[in-house]
Design goal:
Mean pLDDT: 84
Number of domains: 2
CATH class of the largest domain: Alpha Beta
Strand order of the largest sheet: 1-2-3
Strand content: 15-25%
Number of helices: 4
CATH architecture of the largest domain: 2-Layer Sandwich
Shape: globular
Order of helices and strands: HEEHEHEHEE
Helix content: 40-55%
Radius of gyration: 24 Å
């Protein structure tokens, strides 16, 4: 009988036979956790897309649905097909319709998975346009502080929008905080001195 060698290489370091194995296990556990989180976010996107597609069918609207996972969040975008202008109407003139649809979509994900979702819904580029306006607003606030204003108070906005502003301000090397409560919660930009 011939002796067969194990094709799995031993992981061993001099003086610490299990050190390499622990490191390998830790890395594998972290990779597994990242994979599970990514899989969960992809599942959220699929559930959200199905829900939004049903809503579009009920409203007799056409749109292509794109799902993207980035920065630990699921982004679902409904893109208007050529000549479909009615899709923007879902957002509402002030964006409140889009916010309401996003909450309904999050509830659909919660009902299906049992987990709360932080997904972001965009319809016909509305949220992307708003993000561009918020970036410009934040840059203007940064410039006003650099020009000597002690503090610049911005308009009230939701948590996701405040996060976008905080990121722009931090990238510029200044400080921002959220103040106020409920519908009056807003960002204040300062030099941090």
């Amino acid at each position: 009988m011939t002796e067969q060698s194990d094709p799995t290489p031993e992981v061993e370091q001099a003086g610490a036979p299990s050190a390499g194995l622990e490191e390998q296990t830790t890395t594998t556990a972290a990779d597994s956790s990242d994979s599970q989180a990514s899989s969960r976010l992809e599942e959220e996107g699929d559930i959200a897309a199905d829900y939004v597609e049903e809503l579009l069918d009920i409203a007799d609207l056409d749109g292509d649905i794109d799902i993207e996972v980035r920065n630990g969040r699921t982004y679902v975008s409904v893109v208007a097909e050529e000549g479909e202008d009615r899709l923007r109407e879902l957002s509402g003139a002030d964006g409140k319709g889009l916010d309401a649809l996003q909450e309904l979509t999050r509830l659909a994900v919660l009902a299906s998975t049992g987990n709360r979702s932080r997904l972001v819904l965009d319809i016909a580029g509305r949220r992307a346009e708003r993000a561009g306006r918020l970036e410009k607003l934040a840059q203007e606030a940064v410039q006003r502080v650099r020009d000597g204003e002690a503090a610049v108070h911005l308009e009230p906005m939701g948590a996701y929008e405040r996060k976008l502003v905080h990121d722009v301000v931090a990238d510029a090397g200044l400080v921002s905080e959220s103040e106020g409560e409920g519908a009056r919660r807003h960002v204040v930009v300062t030099s941090g001195d």
